[in-house]
Lysosomal Pro-X carboxypeptidase
Amino acid sequence: MKFFLTIYILFIVYYPSIAGWIRPHHFNIISRSIHDFHNDRCKQFHTVTQQVDHLSFVNKDTFQQRYILNTDYWQNGRPIFFYAGNEGDIDLFCDNTGFMWDIAPNFNAMIIFAEHRYYGHSLPYGNQSYSKPEYTRYLTSEQSLADYAYLIDYIRTNIKGAEQSSTIVFGGSYGGMLSAYFRMKYPHLVAGALAASAPILQMSTPCESFTRIITQDFLRESSSCVKIIRSSWHAIDRIGILPGGRERLTKLFKLCHPLKTIAELKNWLFDIFANIAVVDYPYPTSFLADLPAFPIRIFCTNVTSSIIDEINTDEEIVKRIVKGVNVFFNYTGHTECFDTGSQGTPSLGILGWSYQSCTEFPMPICSNGISDMFEIQPWNFQAFSDYCFAQWKVRPRSEWTFMEFGGKPITNFRYYSNIIFTNGNLDPWSAGGVNSTIVSSLPAILITGGAHHLDLRAANKDDPQSVIQVRQEIVKLIQKWVS
Amino acid sequence: MKFFLTIYILFIVYYPSIAGWIRPHHFNIISRSIHDFHNDRCKQFHTVTQQVDHLSFVNKDTFQQRYILNTDYWQNGRPIFFYAGNEGDIDLFCDNTGFMWDIAPNFNAMIIFAEHRYYGHSLPYGNQSYSKPEYTRYLTSEQSLADYAYLIDYIRTNIKGAEQSSTIVFGGSYGGMLSAYFRMKYPHLVAGALAASAPILQMSTPCESFTRIITQDFLRESSSCVKIIRSSWHAIDRIGILPGGRERLTKLFKLCHPLKTIAELKNWLFDIFANIAVVDYPYPTSFLADLPAFPIRIFCTNVTSSIIDEINTDEEIVKRIVKGVNVFFNYTGHTECFDTGSQGTPSLGILGWSYQSCTEFPMPICSNGISDMFEIQPWNFQAFSDYCFAQWKVRPRSEWTFMEFGGKPITNFRYYSNIIFTNGNLDPWSAGGVNSTIVSSLPAILITGGAHHLDLRAANKDDPQSVIQVRQEIVKLIQKWVS
């Protein structure tokens, strides 16, 4: 079995590479083969007709938005729990947001997961949705919030007993940003929001923060591990420039296809480091295919096993990294080779987030080689913008995002209310999160030992005490909002 | 001098006429020749570059938005008073919003009047702005609010000492709606809003309310007057169908051009009745050209003077109406003839509101002949929608307006704060206003004896006590918001 990195949940990371923006880095993955929490109820799909363009009147096209509806626990008049779908198939978010299912019975809540336009099956122009600017232009957060507003109204109108139901909006990562935005812009429709691991400030966060947190996660497990990773970049270079060097690296890393460039390998390794930091959960999960509990720990154990005082050869350094990467092999034993990039046409999820990064949400990520274990890769906004123009005929305007939703300065969020911002200290995306409570109605809660939106996942026997407590706090606040 | 009804401020009324929607009714006028309050500072124009499309990224066109800036009273760090411009040249709103100038010295406030896109000189595509759907599509309230957000940010960034200034937004009529919407959607930018005579609910208000209030205003002055108006419609019909009847009516009413249809005359009369109710101020003004104080009273005095028990002839009835209309002649003595409609290309103000009525703000107005003094004219949404499609290639979707801004039911406004809704009991537009206080942070204040946004006008020795008190209340609330 190939170890194919299916890009799915979370964000594509636009990290400046030697290869430039033409082949953007990405990561953030769900293997579709095995889910942590496979929920048959996440296949109960419905559709609703939406305007392609809510915000103007010239284009009268409509499309079918997909959503999941569950009323197993619901009683008349009781709340609606609404998940603001993000960049992918909605059933994947449903499968990985067990928290809503865990607490719905206590609230006799209806559960809705709404698929984000331009992702999954909710494609305004079918498989042509990404084919030209006239079709992509309706992929914005404002349009998706309008979809969600209409969907809530539709449910309240069409399900008897739901007319007066309070709605609580949930979301993680970009979905967490939408969750916060939805409460900000539509307080007449939603009573409160859980914005889990929402990097709502990432567009203006120092670009090195993300890689610094990855590095801290690895340092927490082993400083030797970080030392080896740090030295591996030049080791790879030195092997790569030798005659037959790329072939040697292809073989060492068990790659499915011959390496074309050294940058390709480095990008792929960066993706792996970033990913296992993002999903460094305390129990086995299938984010980034199938991972063991504490994947960084396992990675570093492999890298540093039988360590000697001095590592003398480039080959030895690289072999240790390979051993770390083998954490994937070792865990399931099924992977025969690794693929350093997605093949052929990228999935719509990749296209969508590429477009959104190129418009409202350019999220600078860089490394300086000092506060992080990577090579120096400065962020170059102009180069990124040029990439966006070449790719999509658009240029990013993140100042609009802050103008529309606030956050610059962060204190101007204080005019909003009933939003919980949770972040895990292990999560690189926490760099762009709201990490301090600005006003009491916008509590910022840190989950110690938490990776990316751990709080949204189903309860697990291996959950740290921190997330158990945070979930209790969230439930209390929701009780307050719906009462 | 022709008495030419220059359509300017306020709304075009889409009142179903016998002639259908092809020639929509309109009213709401400012004579550009004489202003109530002519303020040289309303000619201090500036411009700022705005995105034509804030809400998508494909169209990168920009345009120059015009605004008026005054810092005569301003001190560093003190508030910004921002007028959310409505459907017309911004200097006209500036000239007719003396209240902001009156109270600015007390607050050491900076004054800004922002021109609404697609009106005045703020034309995204110059004189082609209304030429095709691809150009008109950016005429929406959301886009204009985004302009205002950018303008405030621009001022705060570029005027030293304004970085931390609180902004209070003012507006009357449609500008009052925008003022409320601006506070709702951008509380991180504006601390509070005065929404004066804002018919924010007119899209869902029973259509006969507007004409009922006009009638009540006339009844308050004279029931005989209303009786004569009521009987005039058939009198006009009976004269009109006679051989040479239209010529006779043309002569009786001193029209500049021969009447083509009876409907044309009736529409024009409806406009006059609606207009003088809207601007039934207690002192002479130049809304609707030059009007005396209490124009309804003067109109009715003329109509009912030397009244006899029984009015026997159609001609006599019509002559009395003509005498009422002559209130305009009598007041300035300059008008030689009346023009029943705008000639040639309507001004951009008409075009703009026509488009906005056909998209976000369809405001049903009808008459039943019972609660009002007009003929029966039912509201026909489908006919209106068809007119819109023929005219602009769009159809109205007012459900979007309520989805976006709340108000259906009205109680869902309660999730917003710091908006004062003022309405005058004489104002037909008060029918669609917020007339009861939903929560304490959204006070609804009635101005007894007030016509359309009387409170926004400069203080006048003939102001009723009610408006004096209301202005004091407004000042107190603004003091609370900016402190």
Notes: Chain B has two domains: 45-201+407-482, 206-396.
